[in-house]
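Why run this: before we spend reagent on co-expression, it is cheaper to look at a predicted model of the complex and decide which construct boundaries make sense. The entries below are exactly what would go into the expression plan.
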Amino acid sequence: MSQRDGNLAETIPTFDDDVNAGRGVGLSGMTGLSAGTIHGWRDAIVIVLVAVVIIGGLQIWLTVSDTPAYVMPKPSEIGAALVDNFPLFWPHILSTLQVLVIGYAIGTSIGLVLAATITQVPFIEKVITPYILLLVTTPMLALVPLLGAKLGYDSIAPRIIVVALASGPMVMINAATGFRRTDLGKIALARSYGASTIQIFTKIRFPMALPMIIVGLMIGAIFGLLTAVGAEMVGSSEGLGNRLVYYSSRVQMDNFFAIIVILAVIGITDYVIFYWIGKKWASWQS
Amino acid sequence: MSDPGSGTPFLTIEHATKTYDTGSGPLTAIEDLNLSIDRGEFVCVLGPSGSGKSTLLWAISGLHPLTSGTITLNGRPVTSPPREMGMVFQDANLLPWRNLWENMLFPFEIRRQRSEPHHERIRELLRLTGLAGFEKKMPLELSGGMRQRASIVRCLGFDPEVILMDEPFGALDAFTRDEMNLLIQNIWLGSGKTVIFVTHNITEAVFLADRVVVLSPRPGRIAHIFEIDLPRPRTIDQTLEPPFIEQVQRIKATIERGQPARTGAMA
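The model came back. Tokens follow.
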């Protein structure tokens, strides 16, 4: 009789809390920085101190070793370039951000809608998955010169397209993992109150998938930024990636590193935004 | 709603059969099961695991339709979850992304019904179940017993006429279970609500029920129905006294033999 019980278990929902697949693949698990909350002043002071030690140490080391600026500029020189030339950088920052925001918005919207729909129809999911994997594993940067030739070298469209193609599938894959976490018990609960399919989606499936969706949005944003910069390096007359190529070709390493600092700030801002979103909307998981 | 006391039973189950398609062929969980339940009755469905007691409950709830047979509530066939029914699940089944209070309002949201007129009663129920003051807590911050009490409040919050309970205390320790059984009895007494309670715990069934329906092993059929005429309100101490223990032993013998003992009290 016990084997028969095993069979029956597939058709009668059981209500272990652990049926959710992908537990522990939460926001913090994906980023490996779960302890990133800053508790009080002491932590903040230590973090600032570490930064001061690293930057100061670098400054001293580069001064003592008399390293030429074209190999590695001193932090003070990078800082000066950042401040002095910021007006020169500004249009390029805007250009990159514009490409990133538009491409990311298009890519993630399509990714989310696709994830929500295909997970409801396993057959379509099977058919689509190989193509999505193809999109994820193929470097979209290769498309930039091709799209540039078609749409014009000065157009931002090629960059927007590759950013969308890079961020969309990341969001889709993660969101699909979230939507696949079907907890039959919670769905039965909603149905026992007469919930419609749409209500089951909005009140159960979506909130349940939200932590994974946020992880996808975060990874998508970072991939989008990397792809935007890469696209500007290979085929654009503007943007921060273009500036990296420009300054390195002229051996203006202070400006080059100033751009790197700006990119780092944009990347960390991405992370912080999604960290707070995750804390607000996905904290129930931990 | 049909008029009460007209002689038509409140809830009837006729020739209920449920077959599941499994990898190794069809499996009959319950077969030609007949039962009728009166308004305000507390019925416990008892049976070994695999006797189809959850299947029966889920069929009554309208969540899993029968393969054949009919279930009628208030004269109307049950084909989808009826509004006058509420279900308490094996697992507390709270939504972990909502706090306790938001969980209590979940049924109203689904039913697109204003919850304000019910806030008073929900607060009263939370107080009665020792959950007052925990409204803002997330489910994962509550103990297993608190979560299960919350799920009972959620079910009672919209004032269902019929409450279906699917082994609600199976995962709780013995002390918490006693406490919950007392709570359920106190809430039920004088409420006029009909309760169908599935369990595999004989003591729990005898403690709670007006009638204990014992199912035979698969395919589930009614092996016997026991009337429990122990006085109410029942106490935990009573469960250690001879009349209670005799009743438990009679039921135990029935389950072991798959049919009533000769001396079993007839329904």
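Residues 77-285 of chain A form a domain with the MetI-like fold fold (CATH 1.10.3720.10). The two ends of chain A are 38 Å apart (CA to CA). Bring this page to Monday's planning discussion.
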